[in-house]
Amino acid sequence: MPQLTDHSATDDPECGPGTWMTPEEYGASRAAVWTAAVVLVTDTDGRILVQSVDYRADRLLPGGAIDAGEAPSAAAARELREELGVDGRYPRGLAVDWIPADTPGFPPEMRFPGEILHVYDGGTWTPDRIDAVRLPAQEITGIHFAEPADLPALMDPGDARRALSALRARINGCGAALLEDGRPTAPTALDRLGVLRARRTPQRGAWHAGPVPAQVPVRSVSAWLFAPDGRVLLLIARTSGAAHLPPPAAAAAAGSAPLGYRYGEEGAHARVAARLTALPPVVDPAYARLLATPEQVRELSDWGPAGEDEVAAVHAARARLGLPAPARTPLAELAEEGVRW
Questions:
Q1: pLDDT value of position 4
Q2: Any residues with CB less than 8 A from the CB of 69 and at least 6 apart, and which?
Q3: What is the phi-psi region of residue 83: left when phi exceeds 0, alpha when psi lies from -120 to 50, beta otherwise?
Q4: Residue 154 to residue 67: CA distance in whole angstroms
Q5: For residue 309, what are the CA distances in angstroms to 153, 247, 268?
Q6: Section 239-267 average pLDDT
Q7: Whether the predicted model's global pTM rises above the 0.90 cut
Q8: What are the phi and psi torsion angles at 320 (to 5°)?
Q9: Residue 53: phi, psi to the nearest 5?
Q10: 3-state DSSP call for residue 251?
Q11: Least C-beta-crowded within 10 Å: which of 59, 94, 186, 234?
């Protein structure tokens, strides 16, 4: 920081240490930007709340400008109260985004100076809380919950990038992401692989514990394969960012046992559980291999309300295998040469 002083305090200001500036000069040299705060809210199916407004065609996350002297988290709470009629506190930040002054879409007469935008975590809203939303007479014309992959079609490109980056930061659980025009400055595996840019495949059948009955046709079999720290193997398609549980043969495993199944009109989607003992070198480069907690797998999937039942069964299987409950950490991509435990 330059030294702030009164030039009249010395006969030769160039002899003083540092860079000499008056307070007025220093203040004039600083960049001026707008500030705003928005809130990312999901429903129990992992869809994102977006709202329609009467002054633009695309959708927005709830939120808005920070008033002079107002803290960003206080602005987030005020905006949700004004826009949705919902009281709450949102202390957890998901992202801080720098939006450049030359961003398209701002009229020249607005003299947009750039913006620092804070994204806060609004949590997962239950149907009762969603039903409690009360829209104001003006500005907000409606809300709905959008599949994450649909955001680029609904929102301004920068707004969609920001919302997806914030959602990935929430799933990673590693603190707020620093963004520049919606793009992380330090991309995680979820960012690099573009996870959630494709629509999730619904598997919304009811969860049934145990093996699939003999008379029920089995459409697919996938596995919850546990690493020693309690996390599980997850495959990410590099072309689409889609997340998949692996087939049982994806790795060397021990103690495999039927876990349960989901049943739909086309048949059963069966799950087994086992302890990973080794992961061979990559044989299909179309997929990245990551370790995730069961909760992170669910948040990347579209399983409906029965997802809670499946995750509970997964943790019961983990406990039976004598493995610890995993802490939420950023999803880690495994080396292509494989690993042995």
A1: 54
A2: none
A3: alpha
A4: 27
A5: 33, 21, 16
A6: 92
A7: yes
A8: -65, -30
A9: -130, 160
A10: coil
A11: 186
